[in-house]
UniProtKB/TrEMBL annotation:
Pathway: Glycan biosynthesis; glycogen biosynthesis. This is Maltokinase. It is an enzyme of class 2 (transferase). Monomer.
Amino acid sequence: MSENPLDRPTTDHLDPQVFVDYLEKTRWFGGKGRPFEVTAVHRIGQVPGCVDAGPAVVDHLVELTYGDAEGGTETYQVPLAFYVEAESRLDHAFVGWWEEPDRGWVHAYDALHDREAMACWLRSFVAAADDAVSGPTGLTFHRLPGHELDPDVTASLFSGEQSNSSVKFGEDSIMKLFRKVTPGANPDVTVHRALTGAGSTDVAALYGWMSWTDEQGEEYHLAMLQQFLRTATDGWDLALTSVRDLFAEGDLHAHEVGGDFAGESERLGLTLRVVHELLREHFPAERRGPEATRALAGAMRARLDAALEVVPELAQHADALRAAYDRVAALDGVDVQQVHGDLHLGQTLRTAKGWKIVDFEGEPAKPLHERVEPDSPWRDVAGMLRSFDYAPRVVEKQSVDLAEDDAEAAAQLAYRAEEWAHRNRNHFLTAYADGEPSDEAKVLLAAYVADKAVYETVYETRNRPGWVSIPLEAVARIGAA
Ligand SMILES: Nc1ncnc2c1ncn2[C@@H]1O[C@H](COP(=O)(O)OP(=O)(O)O)[C@@H](O)[C@H]1O
Ligand SMILES: [Mg+2]
């Protein structure tokens, strides 16, 4: 692995404005539509596995500052592949170029789209088999024992790209590159590491990760390599398919339809229970007293107050919601532990060997120090229950659009949507709680469900106004209960 001469030019040559244009084009950039400026571009290191014949791959952290009232700064990770000749196959991933005195134009591309660049990345993980391998400028590749990586497989960008970018290496492993980064251990890495170490089969095994340490000695987790689950189907997609099966069978009940999901919901509940138990064993867990339950209720009340500004329709249910939060404040304590933090059906995968839970990064919008705080496991359960409510209602919306003007058909769909939601929520919850949850658990769960539905009303009002009735109806049901 020689040093590629292209590593020498620095991005001082690359106009920071090119990152503005590129970020706006990507799926994963969280600040789209907001005014921002790129305030710094840090070239943090070359990927050590590069070869002379290929590109130089250099990782960058791009710091940006928002110019709106909310303001704030964020840091995004953008690995670049440098080529002397233009690579037309990578046109869609072109970031910028500059002229080198002796060499002509150097072209920079988003490295995640380039299989040559990703081959360097894979070689770096392969080389780290026995010991952590560091690049000349500080990127460090770590591996866990127990899995041989095949260095010769082809890399391809995973199409499900959302808040991060994932690259698949053959059918063997998948690397998730964290886009928005902050100093500190990423719970996606630490949780997968602990669960893999414990021999868990409920998550994709962790194979390795990449870190970098800045001048102040702060460590960043920048990427994670794990088992690629070949036979996986997304839990959300499976749930939608099951609902469509039910809707297609005009006269049958959910339990009579071929695509009944209740068995899956039950197995998913068991899976989450086992994962929570393992997290309780491997991370700090404790019982917190009444000051913690009051603080939790206070945070929920504050979120409701903020939501009322955005969604005035919530006002008629505000008293009922506050009553649910008051019941939390009156509890004498709450058990907290490491949780998933952002659990919904889209974070679950059904494989030939059962359900797997993915993406332990927590809620991306929250700062890292909040995401690693121990929390009540009922928050995760509530996330799943809301997801079981969303799935049939999303299909219902699509179907009602088709059967417009037919009030009877619409009422029938709504009835059946509730039937599906009720059945699957119950099967999931009974399996998770191994029977009836305790009174304390019921109070916490009801409040977390309400809190989540309130959050959803804000999200939908801002992003998908056509869907806001889904969480609003859930809030109304809480009010009626
Ligand atoms: N180990 C894996 N094997 C196969 N597919 C996976 C694996 N991990 C994640 N995925 C798929 O990639 C998608 C995104 O992964 P996720 O970890 O949720 O990333 P993000 O942080 O971008 O949401 C998931 O919804 C899932 O469909
Ligand atoms: Mg995800």
